[in-house]
Amino acid sequence: MKLRFDSTLQYQLDAISAVTDLLDGMPSSADINAVPLISEEMEMGTYTELGIANPPLLAQEFIRENLHKVQSGNDIPKSVKLFDKSDVYQFPNFSVEMETGTGKTYVYLRTIFELNRLYGFKKFIIVVPSVAIREGVTTSIKLMREHFRGLYENCAFDDFVYRSKDLSQVRQFARNNEIQIMVINIQAFAKDAEKAGNVIHQEQDKMSGRRPIEFVQATNPVVIIDEPQSVDTTPK
């Protein structure tokens, strides 16, 4: 039996547009955006290892204007600010709410390809709260792979589950010029950096003495949090 996915459901297209419209006016960028990850003085001179980053966002005032348009179109009160100075993270965060059973996984996966098509974004991280949800996400990607390739002209993409025993995938995530989708458990980010086994925050000889998280951060990734309500009231 082969599953078929309906790409024309209007409420799903509206949810995708609610995200992509936030960046309306941003130039399309298919160019390589290289960022230096490592710079070391060596006998032969300076060695620079490069990664490929997402393009920079619009200025905050333009994102806020776009946000107000999206909110008005969905009967949502307008936000005064994108974030407060007291917030831990000084960058915009947006919540897209959908009813259970309406295809949110399909929506955020397809949003990845729309952000790539429209604006050239290539680096995406899907953060999940549990192993069960992680397995559901990876299964969805597998089932929808052919569907998305049909919709987006056989657009090449790689997906993988972050595993601390295979850091080569993190380096590939940073360097590869195709769409990269990393699926990772919230625990990998949330553990105390001093605890043994929290590899993503530890310096690694195999990564030129840098921490894996630095490779991830340098790509300026789009982070999608699946079921954020399960962790938004905790230190995670």
What's the topology here?
Elements: H1 10-20, E1 34-42, E2 45-52, H2 60-73, H3 104-119, E3 123-128, H4 131-151, E4 157-161, H5 168-175, E5 179-185, H6 186-190, H7 212-218, E6 222-225
Helix pairs in contact: 1-3, 3-4, 5-7
Describe the 3D structure.
- With 236 residues, the protein is an alpha/beta fold.
- Helix content is 35%, strand content 17%.
- The chain is built from 7 helices and 6 strands.
- It has helices spanning 10-20, 60-73, 104-119, 131-151, 168-175, 186-190, 212-218, and strands spanning 34-42, 45-52, 123-128, 157-161, 179-185, 222-225.
- It has a 4-stranded parallel β-sheet, sandwiched between helices.
- Helix 5 links the parallel strand 4 and strand 5.
- Helix 1 crosses helix 3, helix 3 (104-119) packs across helix 4 (131-151) and helix 5 (168-175) runs parallel beside helix 7 (212-218).
- The protein is globular and about 50 Å long.
- The N and C termini lie far apart (40 Å).
- Mean pLDDT is 85; it is low at 40-48.
